[in-house]
Amino acid sequence: MANRINITINSRVYTVVANEDTDYLKKLCDYVNEKVNLVLREGQHVTGEKPVVLAALNICDEYFKLLDNSEPTEKLSELLIENKKLEAEIRSMKKAEQESSKQAAEIKDELNITTKVLDETEEKVKFLEGQIKIKENQLKKQRSEFAIREKELLDMLEEK
Questions:
Q1: Tens of pLDDT along 121-158?
Q2: Do the Cβ atoms of 43 and 54 come closer than 8 Å?
Q3: Secondary element (H or E) of residue 23
Q4: How does DSSP classify residue 55?
Q5: Which run of H or E residues covers position 10?
Q6: Measuring CA to CA, which residue among 34, 85, 90, 94 is closest to residue 58?
Q7: Cβ(38)–Cβ(57) under 8 Å?
Q8: Which helix (DSSP H) or strand (DSSP E) does residue 96 occupy?
Q9: How far is CA 143 from CA 4, 64, 65, 140, 152, in A?
Q10: How many CA atoms lie within 13 A of 87 on its CB side?
Q11: Are 8 and 29 contacting, i.e. CB atoms less than 8 angstroms apart?
């Protein structure tokens, strides 16, 4: 959808119809006005359409210098190489993360098994502790009975 916007360049109002966002168009207008004001500050007695034409020439000059400048291309190449390195590092890290997740799952499974074995062992220990108490009570009872019988035997021997 085309946007319709009124912009002011060098004190003249222009109606612009474009597909670009109005904020973007205002930014362009501000840039052109900066260039026109620069021409007006630097030039003496520049009037009429000359400041706008000279500003347009300056903007074109910047544009063509940017196109001719090989430095951005070199910088772009460096950035693309760096980007490929970073992508490879990301892939490597994702692979390591997957491996770590797999190991964590295996450890979790082992932990669950160990916990189950521990719970079963604790139940067996409790059962055996109960058996030990029963046996200790039986032993106490037998010792007591033994002591009673021993005393009876000693008493019998003394009576004879």
A1: 999 999 999 999 999 999 999 999 999 999 999 888 88
A2: yes
A3: helix 22-42
A4: H
A5: none
A6: 34
A7: no
A8: helix 71-159
A9: 110, 112, 111, 5, 14
A10: 6
A11: yes
